[in-house]
């Protein structure tokens, strides 16, 4: 159910396994004829009418993640799983890169990279490092040994528009640990962070915000059999993914940072903390239902001014304007122009929206790219 990349991958895997698969997309009805089971793409929420129809007809629904993982396991592949509210993709990339560098065939997949069903179809690796989202977990029920190891990096407030409550969201995340031979929860990540820090010294993870995520990556690498020398080398070579606290330009002592991947308020708070102080923050977009007042503490004292864009600009203005100077800009172009006009040497212009991007952009990637282009345009004016 649901076309997308994962839907096409599940369809192809089903055909390979000998099933006559039918793909249903959009708002159409489910087929009237009987069928053995349904594979749900992550975009299909548990509240979707299709899910109710399957329950009424006694049809088992599994996630694309589950369908792919079970086939990967049948083929003898070993899997590591990563979930959490912030930093999943970076940890998945770091672990997969480290395994590859050590001579093991590994692939990053799931919510980051290829859908798991596509990996199962191609069988390109010995190890699959799987990013798992809360959306996928709504229809996932795997055996206790499905993953060699699983980590929950952190649990913050996110996706309330889909899951309804913080408790429901956190429960979906932590349920992953019951599907692995070994598990590490957020408290465990924090507990081992200081002992692991020398291995990722000077890397992307070497800061108070991401230190626990770095520790989780070390734990997974060790679980997969890497020695500490290989792990330290992997961190030294690690290149962060785009749109995650990437410095896009520096003009006249003004640093400009793209953190467009900050699609939740918890991620915005982390981005502001990592950026330090004297920040001119561009934020806003399509809110996910989390409380904007929750980020007032990190904004206060670090952020000089906020330039608000997108559908939730007025909501954020009402929540923040008593604590920090705010300007409703609406569009990214106006926000960048205003921020660069106000910026002085020593300031940081930070795009860390704290929201989804789909009110004005096709993706967070496009949002970050537009920001970078506008920053360069404004920088040319200052020359």
Key descriptive features of the protein:
alpha/beta; globular; 383 residues; Protein-Tyrosine Phosphatase, Chain A; UDP-N-acetylmuramoyl-L-alanine:D-glutamate ligase; 16 helices; five-stranded parallel β-sheet
Explain what you see:
The chain is of the alpha/beta class. Helices cover 41% and strands 17% of the residues. The strands form three sheets. The protein has a six-stranded mixed beta sheet, with helices on both faces. Helix 1 (4-16) packs parallel to helix 5 (116-122) and helix 15 packs across helix 16 (364-382). It starts with a helix and ends with a helix. The model has no long low-confidence stretch (mean pLDDT 94).
CATH structural architecture of the largest domain: 3-Layer(aba) Sandwich
Helix content: 40-55%
The assembly state of the depicted protein chains is: single chain
Tell me the fraction of residues in β-strands, as a range: 15-25%
Strand line-up of the largest beta sheet: 8-9-13-10-11-12
User: Can you summarize the main beta sheet?
Assistant: 6 strands, mixed
The CATH superfamily name of the largest domain is Mur-like, catalytic domain
Q: Can you give the mean pLDDT?
A: 94
């Amino acid at each position: 159910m649901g076309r997308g990349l994962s839907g096409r991958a599940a369809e192809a895997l089903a055909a390979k396994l000998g099933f006559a698969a039918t793909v249903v997309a959009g708002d159409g009805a489910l087929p009237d004829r009987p069928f053995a089971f349904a594979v749900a793409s992550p975009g299909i929420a548990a509240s979707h009418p299709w899910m109710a129809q399957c329950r009424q007809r006694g049809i088992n629904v599994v996630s694309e993640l589950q369908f792919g993982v079970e086939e990967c396991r049948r083929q003898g592949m070993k899997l590591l799983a990563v979930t959490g509210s912030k930093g999943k993709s970076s940890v998945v990339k770091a672990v997969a890169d480290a395994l590859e560098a050590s001579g093991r065939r590994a692939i990053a997949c799931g919510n980051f990279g290829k859908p798991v069903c596509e990996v199962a179809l191609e069988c390109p690796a010995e190890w699959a490092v799987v990013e798992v989202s809360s959306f996928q977990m709504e229809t996932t029920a795997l055996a206790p040994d499905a993953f060699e190891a699983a980590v929950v990096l952190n649990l913050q407030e996110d996706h309330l528009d889909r899951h309804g409550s913080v408790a429901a969201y956190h429960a979906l995340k932590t349920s992953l640990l019951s599907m692995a031979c070994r598990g590490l929860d957020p408290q465990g990540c924090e507990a081992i962070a200081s002992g692991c820090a020398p291995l990722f010294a000077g890397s992307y993870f070497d800061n108070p915000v991401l230190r626990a995520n770095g520790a989780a990556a070390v734990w997974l690498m060790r679980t997969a059999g890497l020695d500490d020398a290989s792990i330290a080398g992997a961190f030294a070579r690690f290149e962060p993914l785009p749109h995650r606290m990437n410095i896009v330009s520096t003009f006249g002592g003004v640093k400009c940072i793209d953190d467009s991947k900050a699609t939740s308020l918890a991620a915005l708070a982390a981005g502001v903390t990592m950026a330090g102080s004297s920040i001119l923050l561009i934020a806003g977009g399509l809110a996910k239902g989390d409380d904007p007042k929750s980020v007032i503490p990190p904004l206060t004292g670090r952020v000089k001014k906020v330039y608000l864009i997108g559908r939730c600009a007025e909501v954020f203005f009402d929540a923040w304007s008593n604590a920090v100077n705010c300007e409703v800009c609406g569009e990214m172009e106006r926000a960048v122009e205003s921020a660069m006009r106000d910026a002085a040497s020593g300031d940081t212009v930070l795009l860390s929206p704290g929201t989804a991007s789909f009110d004005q952009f096709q993706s967070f990637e496009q949002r970050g790219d537009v920001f970078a282009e506008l920053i360069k345009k404004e920088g040319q004016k200052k020359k």
